[in-house]
Design a protein that fits this description.
Blueprint (H helix, E strand, L loop, with lengths): L32 E6 L2 E6 L25 H5 L21 H10 L10 H5 L1 H30 L5 H32 L9
Helix pairs in contact: 2-4, 4-5
Length: 199
């Protein structure tokens, strides 16, 4: 392909593959990226260069999608918006009194002895962490119990009793898995995360 000529008699321009071409620019404009063919490799050079500078040595302008902070505003979220799976007993994050409802809800998930620790009262994020770990342990126990129930119980109980016990594990496992997600969302909200409304 090195000897190929264009219609005007000069050497033909290298063809930029469709997946590498900038869709915002016309196909005949190869200033943004040009292909250099050599030893079976295609090297793409952008206008701002590998070191972030253009041909004049000045800092080149990066595309919008590569500029720092391009999506910060879109991902910041806002108060009063709840994500899918948010617990019903907790007010939306950011509204007045939402942390009080979150703390009360979290205390209902952990053993009563957790209420005597002042550090958990002063730092709701730590309470959320312990609640999440407590729920995760319950979920792991349900999975282990489901996987070993037939072998452990078949000699002491009838098949219909074991099947009923497996249904209990299935129900409680599903409920605990949903609860694990709810606790995780509350923990993220207590750490400052906010969500955007769903369109």
């Amino acid at each position: 392909m090195t000897g190929r000529l264009s219609r005007r008699g000069g050497p033909a321009r290298p063809v930029v593959p469709a997946l590498l071409r900038d869709p915002r620019r016309p196909r005949h404009d190869d200033r943004h990226a040009r292909c250099i063919f050599g030893q079976g490799r295609v090297i793409i050079e952008r206008m701002y260069g590998a070191n972030g500078r253009d041909a004049t040595g000045r800092p080149g302008e990066r595309p919008a999608w590569e500029r720092p902070g391009r999506f910060e505003r879109a991902s910041a979220g806002q108060d009063g918006v709840v994500p899918p799976g948010w617990p019903r007993g907790v007010r939306p994050p950011g509204v007045e009194g939402w942390q009080e409802t979150a703390v009360a809800w979290l205390y209902d998930l952990v053993p009563p002895g957790y209420r005597r620790h002042d550090v958990l009262k002063r730092h709701p994020g730590l309470l959320a962490r312990m609640a999440r770990q407590h729920v995760e342990a319950a979920l792991q126990a349900a999975r282990h119990g489901y996987g070993t129930a037939r072998v452990d119980l078949r000699d002491r109980f009838g098949a219909h009793v074991v099947d009923a016990m497996l249904r209990v594990y299935e129900y409680e496992g599903s409920r605990t898995a949903a609860l694990e997600r709810e606790v995780g969302l509350v923990e993220q909200a207590l750490a400052g995360k906010r969500w955007n409304p769903r369109l």
